[in-house]
Design a protein that fits this description.
This protein is α+β, with helices and mostly antiparallel strands. It contains ten helices and twelve strands. Helix 7 crosses helix 8 (233-250). The termini are close together. The relative contact order is 0.15.
């Protein structure tokens, strides 16, 4: 990585006491909700882990501690902090937060912390998902697979559910044989993010069953009518991984396994000896072709607009220390982060936090 453009983060103004007291109360409410969750029923060996809530001004920690915010707390994720692995969640306005959904989101991130503690080797190459090339035929086949997966979930008859599930796995195996690298990253992300979303749904089933049903219906709608999300492979793996896990469970194929001791992805574990079989694909839908062209044109426009309006430049050799994969796009060998990028200068251990929008030029063909 050779250069980056952007602005360094600025210290925000102090928060008001109403929001601070609201976050203190929200933290306690969340703890009480977590008390109701049987973690060991969500996944073999899974257990409750610490969590933090934060806003741009402060971080609310276990034991009633509140510390000033720093850039270690970014996004909703799991981090190592003071010798522990914990879930973190950003709460700009505690008055606008659904308590049950927040608890499920925190358990989602606790599962990521659990994956880290278990040293799960199945980590996706995140930059693979930022590739700007679009193979319309591959995405057409993905869309067909997703419809079969939705049919599998919706099937009330067990034999039909299993039939659709086997068909989904067979078609996907055939497609994966034509694009092995990106398929492997897709399967890894389903194992990492899709399973965490599955855990979040299972959490809602324990504390707010109606909201679990709503969450599942949302994912089913994405599978059958994804719009441009079809081309956002990483984001789609939250949906495909979660619904795939739910279908496997309902079909009598438990997904639980010893995280850290297994190298196969969720899909590889569950598909077993299912042979590949091509779908009755036909020609790609005109809508998919148009969306692909439109997304490519929009990406070119966004990068051109950035270059036209930003002139501050930092030259040097950097490694990519962090970025928001939900808000970063790639064009050729450049990435553009609308929220932030973290770059570590060569020979240093201290990353620079660059507030977005910020662009970085990558070494040709970079995957890390």
């Amino acid at each position: 990585m050779s250069a980056a453009k952007g602005n360094l983060d600025l210290t925000p103004e102090r928060n008001d006491s109403t929001v601070e007291s609201g976050l203190t109360a929200l933290y306690l409410e969340t703890e009480h909700l977590l008390d109701r969750i049987a973690f060991d029923t969500l996944w073999p060996g899974f257990f409750r882990l610490p969590f933090a809530l934060y806003n741009p001004h402060g971080v609310w920690l276990p034991g009633g501690r509140v510390i000033p915010h720093n850039n270690r707390f970014l996004g909703n994720t799991a981090i190592a902090f003071e010798g522990e692995t914990m879930a973190i969640w950003q709460v700009p306005d505690p008055g606008q937060v659904d308590r049950d959904t927040l608890a499920a989101g925190i358990v989602h991130e606790m599962f990521h912390a659990f994956q880290q503690i278990r040293k799960d080797p199945r980590q996706p190459m995140v930059l693979d998902f930022l590739e700007d090339t679009i193979d319309v035929e591959i995405f057409h086949r993905r869309a067909l697979e997703n419809e079969i997966l939705a049919d599998a979930y919706r099937s009330a008859l067990l034999s039909l559910k299993r039939e659709h599930l086997d068909r989904f796995m067979a078609c996907r195996k055939d497609r994966a044989a034509h694009c092995q690298d990106i398929s492997r990253s897709e399967f890894l992300s389903e194992t990492h993010e899709g399973l965490a979303e599955y855990i979040g749904i299972r959490t809602l089933e324990q504390i707010a069953p109606d909201k679990a049903r709503t969450r599942i219906d949302h994912h089913l709608a994405i599978l059958t009518d994804p719009g441009t999300r079809l081309f956002d492979v990483r984001r789609m793996t939250y949906t495909t991984g979660a619904i795939f896990a739910l279908v496997c469970e309902e079909a009598g194929q438990p997904v639980g396994h010893d995280i850290g001791a297994v190298r196969e992805t969720l899909f590889e574990l569950m598909s077993g000896n299912i042979p590949p079989e091509p779908p009755d694909a036909g020609e790609p839908d005109d809508g998919i072709v148009r969306m692909a062209q439109s997304l490519r044109e929009e990406r070119v426009r966004v990068f051109a607009a950035f270059r036209d309006t930003h002139s501050k430049r930092i030259d040097g050799d950097f490694s990519l220390a962090g970025f928001d994969p939900m808000n970063t796009v790639r064009l050729g060998d450049a990435i553009l982060g609308t929220h932030f990028l973290m770059l570590t200068p060569a020979g240093s251990r201290d990353p620079l936090f660059l507030q977005g929008p910020v662009m970085a030029e990558l070494e040709p063909g970079s995957r890390t």
